Amino acid sequence: MAIPVMKPLLGEEEALAVAETVRSGWVAQGPRVAAFEQAFAERVGAAHGVAVSSCTTGLHLCLHLLGVQPGDEVVVPSLSFIATANAVRYCGATPVFADIDPLTGNLTGATVAAAITPRTKAVMVVHQGGVPANVREIRAAAGEIPVVEDAACAAGSTLDGAPVGTGALLAAWSFHPRKLLTTGEGGMVTTDDPDWAVRLRRLREHGMSMSAADRHAAGGAVVESYVETAFNYRMTDIQAAMGLVQLGRLDGIVEQRRAMAARYHELLAPLGLRAVADPEHGTTNYQSFWVELPEGAPELVEVLSKLAAAGVSARRGIMAAHLEPAYAGHPHAPLPGTELLARRSLILPLHHELTDADQRLVVSALADAIELVKS
Q1: For residue range 17-55, what is the model confidence (pLDDT) as tens digits?
Q2: Among 93, 181, 184, 226, who pairs with 246 as Cys (CB 3.0-4.6 Å)?
């Protein structure tokens, strides 16, 4: 494609950091993972960071930590990458789909309250596409039910004037290449609870009583024990070395993306198209820039095909898990907001190499694809 939908910002610094790690001989989970955990937790306003192999495994650990098990329910949005709902199934529990506000793509206090039952063990709220959800409102609706934050896309977004993640009971983050901060693959769980952080570290490493890094540092003969059945969800020092460099770029990446998003808003305004924007309670990092297609526009696949023919790579908007084959027949209440955005939204290119001319071409191609008259 002439204009790709995304491109990670990677440079010589990342390459040097990875090479130095390889030369050190310590490439598995070790000192660089510990440094990345501390730096990332500080950046998002949390006391503790626990690096994991992906956001998906992080979500699984959060629910496992909370004791979610067969017979339990977890309230989740259907409008999210399918990993959100899948993490509930990994615990043998039932995901209960709640609707979203189509203006933000996020759960609300009202939609969460409508989905809670006596079997609800947790609520998982997603900061969809980097747009901060109103967690205060959702916590109030949940009452004593714990709220886990799926912050996969939200590094660099703010909520109530503070970084998303500040004050979170448990939050899981993604470092996939489509995110602003990438380690190739990988994730993080953040929390303010020191006991939970200790157990999360144990759970990610087979339930071992002490980590491999701690055994090595001990210097003498050490025999670990395995205190519970757990998982292999570790991050490598190679990934963490890249993550530390990426973390230093985060503020600049957010600033640039917000400037490009502002330009998109300016170009789209004459066309009357609604696009993702900051909610009243926070700011988005614009991990994804999605646009809602108007009524009467061609089908989403046709629009994407026309954009591709014009050299513009775009993607369907956020998926709806309940419409996927993996959840066929899964019971759910009506989800009108979810189905609206799943049917009528698409994601436009947004990355560090996008030029003003590129953005003009994207908007012009979109207008042609949905048969609008450009001003």
Answers
A1: 999 999 999 999 999 999 999 999 999 999 999 999 999
A2: 181
